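Issue 218. Parser rejects a valid record. Input:
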Amino acid sequence: MSIWEEIKNRVAIEEIISEYVQLLPAGQNFKCLSPFRQERTPSLIVSPSKKIWHDFGSGEGGDVFEFVARMENISRFEALKKIAQRLGIEVDSKPRTTESIQAQKAHLTRYEKGLKALAWSAELYHKVLLKILEDRSHPVIQYCLKRGLSGEIIQSFGIGYAPRDNFLLSLAQKYNLDLDLLVDIGVLKFDEQKLVYKDKFSDRLMIPIKDTNSRIVGFTGRVLDYDKTDRPKYLNSPQSEWFNKSKIWFGWEKARKSILQKKVAILVEGNMDVITAHSFGLTNVIASQGTSFTSQQLSFLKNYTDNLWLAFDNDDAGQVAGTKLFVEAVKMGFSTKKLIIPHPHKDLDEYLNYLAKTTNLGQIEQNLLVQDFFDWQIEQMQPLLVTDNLDKQRQAVLSILKLLALTDTITIDQYAGKLAKITGLSKTKLVLETEKIQQNQQTASNKTSQTTETLENISSNSTSFHILQSWQLVCSYFLFATHDLSRIKLAKIFVLLQAFFENLSQFKSFDEYLQHNQTILELIWETKKGELSYDFIQKILKSIIFYLDQKIDSLVLDPKKYELYSQIKIM
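Output the parser choked on:
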């Protein structure tokens, strides 16, 4: 038995996958929202008995190694080692499969080179700070001590320091590195007036930023307390193909498991809030890069939890950002609460440091106060809700009703009653006004969704994505249904599709494709067989042939393929 088979047999695929996504029971299987794309209903199925997973939305699937490799953006061999380590099994560090050897020899793309350069930069910054740690009187270390950044935390988060005098540039030139690439990834900048390269980060504490696959994709550089210049307090990497703020949760690689276990994610604004929280054992805290959150970030988070606690800063910007996020979170079905940061503390970092001085470290989390977001919102607007200025009162009431309109009838009834007691307004009228707002919101939403659905249908029905899905259904039916389909015809179609789909071209024959994908096709059959009739499959085959019709210009250039195409048209 190979090491691959041994590990696959010993590990429960559902346990491994549940560390990355929130699994729900589905008969003998499990299902979840696909972590590889945005979707509203779960379409990824995990089969414990077959030890495979399949994403019905994209047609992709595989074993536990394939899933971990996709999630971590690593090779299958690296995924094997990662899972083996969990089982206490030692794996030869040199991959022995043809697949992994080819992957090692593959030419690096510019994007991959950028990732390596980012990792190199982070390591240099980190080594500089570790060297400085030997001098307790150094101003950089004095700042770290003041902020509670112990050597353990510095190591854990890979925190570093960017020295003055073009430190990174001098090393890049010494090793003859691609300076333009270093500009693109955001660690150097080019002075177009003087035509010289310079370090982007200078005399700053450097916090490496990782994506959801644990790869370093950028940095946040913070000025130190002794810096009295007018430089911005925080300097982030520029938006690029590596650093995309809309896809990043700072601290994700450390918080993921805790979020799954505690079934709640605590969202904050700043990286230091996350670092401080984790140092005090609050390990389910993450942050976005700035106060603006995207639906893409929330959609990703929905795979792991339905519960959010918002712990934004106590300033006006933090309150506005919190309300905006609450609106998006409620629309996506999150249960959202406010983690109270009492005044005069301005953020979670400051508040936790205060608690650490007044509370046993093991009890910090228990001392946090969490409040329903509507209760907190009403408290914040209390002066306006009871003011004699009727116009200001009306605006305050309407702003709360607009939020209430996003929820259910019970919540509306509960908070309409509270608002009525505070404002003296009629509860009935408040409920009616909320329902009116709901109707307006629904009308606007319907118009948007109709447009979106039309565009999605056009895209889905006209792309290769739809064809690959259809092909899998046909092959599943061919293998497991009682009605016989022509193997010769399917084999010819397969050869033609290989010309347009790279993931099909790796197979030498139709039979090899079927053999390699048999377990996935069986899972598709078990899940979809109630929908698959002979007539339906014939319609699918016609749609695949219609797709090939659109590729006729390419097919006529190859006489053999054109001959096959002509044959299937008359079969």
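Fixed in the parser; the record now loads. Confidence is low (pLDDT under 50) at residues 95-107, 451-462.
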